[in-house]
Specification:
By secondary structure, the chain is α/β, with parallel strands linked by helices. About 40% of the residues lie in helices and about 20% in strands. The chain has helices at about 5-10, 15-35, 45-55, 80-85, 95-110, 140-150, 165-170, and strands at about 65-70, 90-95, 115-120, 130-135, 155-160, 175-180, 185-190. Strands 3-2-1-4-5-7-6 form a seven-stranded mixed β-sheet, sandwiched between helices. Helix 6 links the parallel strand 4 (about 130-135) and strand 5 (about 155-160). The longest helix has 21 residues, at about 15-35. It is globular, with a radius of gyration of 16 Å. It starts with a helix and ends with a strand.
Length: about 190
């Protein structure tokens, strides 16, 4: 089943531009990856799995005004979510220059005016409030919470992409929800 069929099967409604954008993104990522080693995904199928993983939360997220992605890497999940949620302003924080450069290129190529790329470590980002903070494959939950703390206000929603060990990483079950799929545990925390 291809990406579009899978998303439609799962009743995930996305703007029509999303599919064109992820197609162009995939082409660029595979080309850049040969030179710059941006991600471990080296085939269209592997990239499609990462895209699906990144965009699946659209099925359960509320409306979001502004979002922060800590350690965006090659674009998962923040850049992919920005393609899906065009009315949400996304700040993508990526410390590695080659990845930040790729994110800037994709932003320009796709005309993603709802994306800001910061080539910084999260500790260097000025503390402003965000509605939504996300991160995938960066570090364990408590460290992510520490990184996110300067950006959290009452009502901020945090979404961390985790594996099965997520249950070992959460101490406070209050305001915490885990959404499971076959390959992923989405840790949703409301502050």
């Amino acid at each position: 089943m291809n990406l579009k069929s899978q998303l439609e099967h799962d009743k995930i409604v996305l703007p029509e531009t999303f599919y064109e954008h992820v197609e162009r993104y995939t082409d660029h990522l595979l080309k850049w990856n040969k030179i710059h080693n941006l991600t471990g995904a080296t085939t269209r199928e592997e990239v499609a799995e990462h895209i699906y993983d990144s965009v699946f939360p659209v099925s359960f997220l509320p409306k979001i005004n502004n979002a922060l992605d800590i350690g965006t890497g090659a674009g998962f999940p923040g850049l992919i979510l920005a393609m899906a949620l065009r009315s949400t302003q996304f700040t993508l924080v990526e410390p590695l220059a080659k990845r930040a450069g790729f994110l800037q290129f994709i932003k320009a190529d796709l005309g993603l005016d709802n994306v800001e790329v910061l080539n910084k470590r999260i500790e260097q980002v000025p503390p402003i409030a965000y509605d939504f903070i996300t991160s995938r494959a960066v570090t364990e939950t408590q460290t992510l919470m520490d990184f996110a703390k300067p950006f959290i206000v009452k009502g901020t929603l945090l979404l961390f992409f985790k594996g099965e060990r997520v249950y070992d990483e959460i101490q406070d079950a209050e305001h915490v929800k885990i959404i499971k799929t076959d390959k992923r545990h989405y840790l949703l925390i409301e502050r």
